[in-house]
Amino acid sequence: MLKKIKKNYFLLISIFLIMYVSFNLLSGERGLISFFKKKEILNDIKKEELRLISQIKDLDFKNSLLSNNLDLDYVETLIRERFLFGKKNEKLYIIRNNDTKN
After folding, report:
1. Cα gap 52→31, rounded to integer Å
2. Would you state the pLDDT for residue 45?
3. By the 8 A CB rule, do 56 and 49 touch?
4. Is the pTM of this model over 0.85?
5. Residue 72 has pLDDT above 70, yes or no
6. What angle is formed at CA 71 by the lines to CA 68 and CA 77, rounded to 5 degrees?
7. Could you give the dihedral angle defined by the CA atoms of residues 29, 35, 39 and 44, in that order, rounded to the nearest 10 degrees?
8. pLDDT, averaged across the chain
9. Phi, psi of 66 (to 5 degrees)
10. DSSP type of residue 31
11. Which residues are within 8 A (CB) of 75 and not within 5 positions of it... i.e. 6 or more apart?
């Protein structure tokens, strides 16, 4: 039995190394499966970053409307939306621009 092992020593070592490399290629911290999971996490983080950047731009725009040069129309809109502010018996008229030619 020992003679057979000595004859096939190179073959056994080769099989062990191939199994070891293939196992580490697929699993482990730097394996193929881990790579795809990390790639998916990276895509999610990039989407979140874009969403947060657009939210920051929107808040910066709203903040600029409330700076030293106060936009009174925007302030009135905020008051009406947030505090449901309106005058008693107030009527709302919607003027539509009809540009259709007959």
Report:
1. 31
2. 97
3. no
4. no
5. yes
6. 135
7. -40
8. 81
9. -105, 20
10. S
11. 66
Amino acid making up residue 83: F
Identify the CA nearest to 62 among candidates 80, 47, 77, 84. Answer: 77
Q: Dihedral through CA 8, CA 9, CA 12, CA 18, nearest 10?
A: -120
Q: Tokens 């080769």 appear where?
A: 14
CA torsion 94→97→100→102, rounded to 10°?
70
Q: Which residue has the tokens 């790639």?
A: 39
| Token code pair at residue 71 | 């936009």
Cα separation of 84 and 102, whole Å?
Answer: 41
In this prediction, residue 100 has a pLDDT band, given cuts at 50, 70 and 90, of: low
